[in-house]
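Person: I have long wanted to understand how a fold can be written as tokens. Underneath my words sits a plain record pairing an amino acid chain with its backbone structure tokens. Those tokens are not coordinates but codes from a learned vocabulary of shapes. I should like you to check that the lines agree and flag anything odd. The protein I mean follows directly.
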Amino acid sequence: MLEIKNLHASVEDKAILKGINIEVKAGEVHAIMGPNGSGKSTLASVIAGKEEYEVEKGQILLDGQDIEELAAEERAHKGVFLSFQYPIEIPGVSVTNFIKTAINANRKAKGLEDMPAKDMLKMIREKAELLEIDRKFLSRSLNEGFSGGEKKRNEIFQMAMLEPKLAILDETDSGLDIDALRIVANGVNKLKSKDNAVIVITHYQRLLDYIVPDFVHVLYNGKIVKSGGKELAHQLEEKGYDWIKEEVEA
């Protein structure tokens, strides 16, 4: 599904990614871990197509198509979803209206008509129930006055409604208490299928107790320096990132 080959990227002329190689197949969950400043969020942003990042070299292939020249919106229409570490507030636009607009924009890009209102309402009810979201929540302005847990739950709701091929969760556990973490993780687990894939970006192993990865990759100084199964996350929890640093510099 996603194949990244020798990816080099920079921001404001500062090299951040220095040769990333990774392949994510349909049905898989990949976790990307690493210390602050290692390039984790940059990698997420580059895959999603955020404009401020410059790809210097390499390829990003989605279903075999090079998407490097596509704008972020076009990548979203092709099924790439990025949850933000710090979701923005949009006063005056309800959660429901925002998601209706997003879904119909996706459909328009594929040459389809707007989703009929009754079908949209049915889908909203089903996904809200799946993620334990109260109906009153859906009428609130997008992220305005939301707690950290509510913002993250709202993003997982958007993911549920948009049904992306590739979901990238950028530090979705940031600032969550255990209850909010459980609800968000349960939502992600319920949305996993053999036809989609998930990339989870996190500092901490605790999220991976709930969203169990097939593969764990350690990003350090702009490169993937170690890959393994879920046990690698436990090693990082026990030994810390200094262990990786010592291995790399040995």
